[in-house]
Amino acid sequence: MDDETGESLIELIVAMAILGTTMVTIVGGFLGLAKISGLQRDQSKAFTAMTAASEYAKNRACAKPAIHNCAPETVPSTTVPHDSDTTITISGATANTDTALTQFVVTVTTGAAKFTNTLVVR
Fold first, then answer.
1. What angle do CA 4, 6, 9 make, to 5 degrees?
2. Of 84, 85, 96, nearest to 120 (Cα)?
3. pTM for the structure as a whole
4. In the β-sheet with 86-96, what is the strand arrangement from edge to edge?
5. 3-state secondary structure of 17
6. Does an H or E element contain 35, and which?
7. Do strands 86-96 and 113-121 pair parallel, antiparallel, or not at all (unpaired)?
8. CA dihedral 117, 41, 59, 92 (to 10 degrees)
9. b vs e for 40-63, b when ≥16 Cβ sit within 10 Å of the residue's Cβ?
10. What average pLDDT values come out for the chain (122 residues) when binned by 10 residues?
């Protein structure tokens, strides 16, 4: 009589299937967290660049064009501090001489994040 007992092949296959499924789930969760973290980083960088570009455009706007008779100047986006993978576009500087308002459209793109802001400066 053989008193040695061990696991059968079926038990080993079931155990490996359970462990494999668990590992795939854990690795998938970590990959999802990494993707979400990257998206949040891109959004944070884009929002910071949007704030800087909006403030820069606002400060460069012609103060009261109807009174001072000046046109809004073109705002170069290259002088706004930003990361090398961030694209900033400041366009649409239009002045309304009746209301002394100047409008800028600021667009910031970083990775998967894109923000557009319309500024009206008085």
1. 140
2. 96
3. 0.61
4. 86-96, 101-110, 113-121
5. helix
6. helix 9-60
7. unpaired
8. -30
9. eebbebbebbbebbbebbbebbbe
10. 74 95 97 93 87 79 52 60 78 66 82 83 74
